[in-house]
Design brief:
Blueprint: E1 2-8, H1 12-22, E2 27-31, E3 35-40, H2 46-49, E4 55-60, E5 63-65, H3 70-80, E6 87-94, H4 101-114, E7 119-121, H5 131-136, E8 142-149, E9 152-161, H6 164-173, H7 186-195, E10 203-205, H8 212-219, E11 224-228, H9 231-248, E12 254-258, E13 272-276, H10 293-312, E14 319-327, E15 333-334, H11 337-345, E16 349-356, E17 363-371
Parallel strand pairs: 6-7, 6-8, 10-11, 10-13, 11-12, 13-14
Antiparallel strand pairs: 1-3, 1-4, 2-3, 4-9, 5-9, 8-9, 14-15, 14-17, 16-17
Helix pairs in contact: 1-7, 3-4, 7-8, 8-9, 10-11
Length: 375
Amino acid sequence: MSTYIFILGKDRELSFAELKACYPRAKLKAEGDDFAVFDTDEKIDQAEFNRLGGCLKAGKANYSVSRAELPDALARELANRHSGSKLDFAVSVYGWPEKNLRPLLVSLRKAMSAKGLSSRFANQKFLNLSVPQHKGIGKKGIEFIVARSGERFFVGPVIAVQDIDGYSRRDYGKPFRNMKVGMLPPKLAQIMINLTGVKEGKVWDPFCGTGTLVMEGLLMGHDMLGSDVDPKVLDGAKKNADWLVREFGVKNKAEFFVHDATRPMRDKIFGAIAAEGYLGPPQPPHLEAGRLSPLVVKLEKLYVDFFRALKEAGCEKPVVIAMPFFRCAGGKIVDLKDATGRIASLGFLVQGSYRYARPDQSVGRLITCFSRKCR
């Protein structure tokens, strides 16, 4: 069993829920606002980390030390990794104010110099390294994560970082994009698939749009089903999936078909559902909540009809779905809470719910995990 430090993304609760879903047997050892430390038998490397959408970095924690022991412990680590030429290194701290980096980095450089070892720290302005900055230190450099939990400091080298270039390539390089059907971020698609708790097997996206969830599922090793009521959009999703197969060497298969998600679907086999439903049209900032009533009624009917169709088809698979919520004037939040209650009355139990939105967005996503057992 090994100990790993995961640096969580900006949506802390969503990132943490993803880790728990991916590694249900892992033991939580420590946590903070921006990190979680787990003991697990799973091997976390760059390939495994690429399946996670909600974490920025991962480090393998070799030990934990007290505050007084930290500088010497890091100095020994750096000396052991010195190859004879100048060593580029960085330290990023979590659960501990970054103002502590300046004296720590200076002391490490002095300790290395006292041993006759040339080194240079890469922390710009004595701040934590971002993911792009980590890539900048190259394969010959090293970054250490220091995560504080109470009086103990977990220490370990970074072993994996978020593949920001891959996300950008998949998001902007795919041949078909359609602003009218939403722009689901690839990393959020990964998180949603992981939240189903199904690591292997076929996943169905019944509102597949341009195919982002299908694409990410294929990359994660799933065979995928993608359906949509609009044949033109579905054709674009097929083009995107074909492009992904060519560009990324994907071996898994995707099947696309026209289907109204509010109608039962009985002739396909799958292990989980992950989908972003219709979020409604773009909304201006500072929207008056009362003006949303007709749209909310329409959207609630769509989602309730979708879950009713699942019930009629006898579906007992986990469902993770993104439904909209709206930020209105005066800080008021409008969501589809009546729909969630009606969905629960159909036998679908809420296992978790997480808001996802940029600070400037009027329309956000409420990621909700449902489970159901047929009676």
